[in-house]
Amino acid sequence: MLTSTLAPASQTGRSALGGLVAAIGRAIETAPPEQLPQAVCDALRDRLPAAGLLSAQQRQGHADRYTRHILYAHPQGLFTIVALVWRPGQITPIHGHYTWCSYFILEGDMQEEHFAWDPATRCATRRGIVHRPQGDAAASHAGMEEIHRLRNDGAGTAISIHVYGVDGPRVSTHVNRIAELAPA
Predict the structure, then answer these.
(1) CA-based, 20 to 30 A from 7: which of 52, 58, 117, 132?
(2) CA of residue 23 relative to chain centroid, distance
């Protein structure tokens, strides 16, 4: 579910978002392409958590699936910042990315399951699981070399902040590149 929401209602929230946007913009302008996702990840670590970043509306999830709230879309389409709200047990499909991605666990605990891509079978095989506690961050390049699946494995709501190298209107169609799991 993709929801476009307004900027944070408070001055504190607007300031936090503005600082985050500026830090990500600097990372994109200065990092070489092979280091860009990690540079954005470092910017997330430096700027988050930030008081008031999300409004009450942007903290709302959906009972049946994780929810995306667009926080900022760069006017030239260089990147989009999205808050994902996860209820307990909610999970993404197994996927690679059409674009680079960096994310930060703002609240709660997440689990990231990693997969290897087999071009011969065009399927993914399990490689391992990483626990992503609040304050952790990760980054990946576009392609099928860094396939993963995210899940809220905690008892409460989790919120993650994602930055994708795609313009806002294309977040729901040009980010996740779905992969099938290889038969056991």
Answers:
(1) 132
(2) 16
Evaluate whether residue 80 is within a structural domain: yes
Show the tokens assigned to 145: 């070399």
Say if residue 148 carries a ligand binding annotation. yes
Q: Is position 48 within any domain? A: no
User: pLDDT of 42-75, one tens digit each?
Assistant: 999 999 988 789 999 999 999 999 999 999 999 9
pTM, rounded to two decimals: 0.92
- Among residues 105, 101, 94, which one has the least CA distance to residue 38? 101
Answer yes or no: is 141 a known binding residue: no
CA atoms of 52 and 16, how far apart (whole Å):
7
* Residue 74 among known ligand-binding residues: no
Using alpha carbons only, give the angle 173, 178, 184 rounded to the nearest 5 degrees: 170
- Going from the C-alpha of 57 to that of each of 85, 108, 109, the distances in angstroms are 11, 18, 21
Its domain, for residue 136, covers: 57-181
Helices of type H across the chain = 11-30, 36-47
Domain total in the chain: 1
